[in-house]
Amino acid sequence: MWTIYVFLLISALYIIPLLVNKKWPRTLLVYWLIGSACIAFSITGSLAHEAHHHFTAHMLVHLLLGMIAPLFFVLAKPVALLISTLPTTVARRVMRFFKMPYIRLIGHPITAALLNIGGLWLLYTTDLYGMMHTSVFVHYVIHLHIFLAGYVFTHVILSIDFYPHRASWRLRAIVLILAIAGHNILAKWIYANPLQIVGQQQAEIGAMWMYYGGAIVELAIITLLCYEQYQRVQKAMKRAVEVTV
């Protein structure tokens, strides 16, 4: 029951401004609903309960909360929706917020990657994983960080939603490659060096979910990033043809 409530609550955050903004594409709502479902299933219900006792379930939560949900939320372009829905004066304040030096630092591809992948290394190579199962506060803080870090990283790398400090395509591509390498190396490290409170079998299965499950999301991000460059090249070629003609 709580899963449905969480799903409806998160969905409403997108549906309400969508009802106000009649011009916004309704197809993007599907992405937001998928992301909302990922969040709801990862923090409530049987999967969330099993994640406290089984590393495999924990890794499934990690994939839903830190990779799949952020990707679909970014595809829904919620920031652009918010800005286009708000009154002009309020929208300008929101835009000024995104131009603040702190936001620019957090939104730099290198910083975003360090917060995302670096946070995972800290979680699985220190005592944080054990602490999150003994402290409710630490548990929710870590889950919140996993989602936010995953969302910011995906948002910055793809840059399909509103963001005034978009980095160059080359820098974003390089950071993405390094981040994927860091994520995959960590998965292999977990496979070969199980956490003390996690059994060998659970560690191996969880590590494989992290590696192969993460690869699917990573492939989707790579495809979207390459498609951006493809569109840029196509536009440049079209302009060149028009000039010659």
Describe the structure.
This protein has 245 residues and is mostly helical. It contains twelve helices and no strands. Helix 8 packs antiparallel against helix 10. The model has no long low-confidence stretch (mean pLDDT 91).
Quick tags:
245 residues; mainly alpha; 12 helices; globular
- Termini separation: 63 Å
Q: Work out the helicity level.
A: over 70%
Total DSSP E strands: 0
N-to-C series of helices and strands: HHHHHHHHHHHH
Please compute the radius of gyration using only Cα atoms.
Answer: 20 Å
**Overall geometry:** globular
Strand content: under 5%
Mean pLDDT, as a whole number?
91
Largest sheet: none
Total DSSP helices: 12
Brief summary:
The protein is built from twelve helices and no strands. The protein has helices at residues 2-20, 28-43, 45-50, 55-75, 78-85, 88-98, 101-106, 109-125, 128-131, 136-158, 169-192, 200-244.
Topology overview:
Layout: H1 2-20, H2 28-43, H3 45-50, H4 55-75, H5 78-85, H6 88-98, H7 101-106, H8 109-125, H9 128-131, H10 136-158, H11 169-192, H12 200-244
